[in-house]
Specification:
The structure is a single chain. This protein has a domain at 5-233. It is 72% helix and 1% strand. It has helices at 5-29, 52-67, 75-94, 99-116, 128-151, 157-175, 181-201, 210-230, 234-239, 242-257, 270-276, 281-304, 307-324, 327-331; strands at 33-34, 46-47. Strands 1-2 form a two-stranded antiparallel sheet. Helix 4 crosses helix 5. The radius of gyration is 19 Å and the shape is globular.
């Protein structure tokens, strides 16, 4: 890489910080404001769409590294997916789009990368099991994009999640000897851009990501985790995002069992219930941060030790985080 990732990350963090500050009055003047309602966790009208401050610098780094041959050819497919999802999500921020349009854009963005990727050998997909596995990857990635959007409901939570997961991905690659742009530099660049935004999104938030930010982060983090799994570190790829996976999936299953309209906005995630029970946005995000730091350590252990043993430990840690956010636990 011609430009060291340390310099790239520092520049991206500064750009994200400045762009976020610029976007606050711009979005306010365009009346792109989240007005608090019965499903909101915030009490003050707050501009949304600040995710552009992360998308623009990270996309710039991705284009530069792909155009100069530093990144792999599949980079163009990821870049196209990023731009498609950013534009569709931005329109959704400005004027609400239907679920079908959003899912179609996600399907196109995911399928394009998998069709373009040298890691997917379609000649070998001669059995039902292999096709089923490919379909599982598509559905899992789309679910990850949406759960990232669902979980972005209080100040700082998605910033904390993205930074810790990305640092964890880079750490696992470092331990296993990886040093390529799409292994170490990209997740650290994404973490840096998110940190610049988080300075303005920490409680009390002055700006929100909006769909343009949360969908972008879900897409890129999902791609990075898929790469990590396909490199052989499948346990670490499951462990690092486990809190988001658990909170979103358990909540979805609960709503389906109760025959509720699970696709509608709600306030039933563990982190939302914790806030309703009296914890501040910062307190909730800090509890998740502590759990995520532990998950990073367990992911690194999975590289050296038993993968299944590490997963079992991570399940216990994630359960502890969910318990720490439980209203009944705090009320006792």
């Amino acid at each position: 890489m011609s430009v060291g990732w340390e310099i790239s990350a520092a520049v991206v963090a500064a750009m994200s910080f400045v762009l976020t500050r610029i976007l606050i009055p711009v979005l306010q003047n365009r009346s792109l404001i989240d007005i608090p309602n019965e499903r909101s966790s915030h009490v003050e009208p707050t501009p949304r769409g600040g995710g552009w401050a992360i998308v623009i610098p990270v996309l710039g780094v991705m284009i530069y590294n792909t155009a100069t041959g530093v990144w792999t050819p599949v980079g163009w497919a990821v870049i196209f997916g990023v731009m498609l999802l950013a534009l569709v999500s931005w329109v959704d921020d400005v004027r609400t789009l239907g679920v079908k349009i959003r899912l179609l854009a996600q399907l196109i963005s995911v399928a394009l990368v998998l069709l373009s990727s040298p890691i997917i050998e379609f000649d070998s997909l001669s059995t039902f099991l292999n096709y089923a596995l490919l379909m599982f990857v598509v559905l899992a990635w789309i679910w990850f994009i949406n759960l990232y959007n669902f979980m972005d409901g209080i100040d700082g939570i998605t910033g904390v999640q993205t930074i810790t997961v990305c640092i964890g991905i880079a750490a696992v690659y470092r331990v296993t000897g990886g040093a390529d742009i799409d292994e170490v530099a990209l997740p650290l660049t994404l973490a840096a851009a998110t940190a610049g935004f988080l300075c303005w999104n920490w409680s009390p938030a002055r700006i929100f990501l909006g769909d343009v930010g949360s969908v972008f982060l879900g897409y890129i983090v999902g791609w990075l985790l898929l790469q990590l799994a396909l490199s052989g570190q499948w346990a670490a790829a499951i462990i690092l995002p486990m809190y988001y996976l658990a909170d979103a999936t358990i909540t979805l299953c609960r709503r389906i069992i109760r025959r509720e309209k699970f696709w509608k906005a709600h306030k039933e995630h563990f982190y939302q219930r914790a806030h309703q029970a009296g914890l501040s946005h910062a307190n909730v995000s800090l509890r998740i941060l502590v759990g995520n730091i532990a998950l990073v350590g367990i992911a690194l252990y999975s590289v050296q030790g038993s993968s299944w043993g590490a997963i079992m430990i991570s399940v216990c840690v994630t359960g502890g985080v969910l318990f720490a956010l439980s209203p009944r636990q705090r009320a006792s």
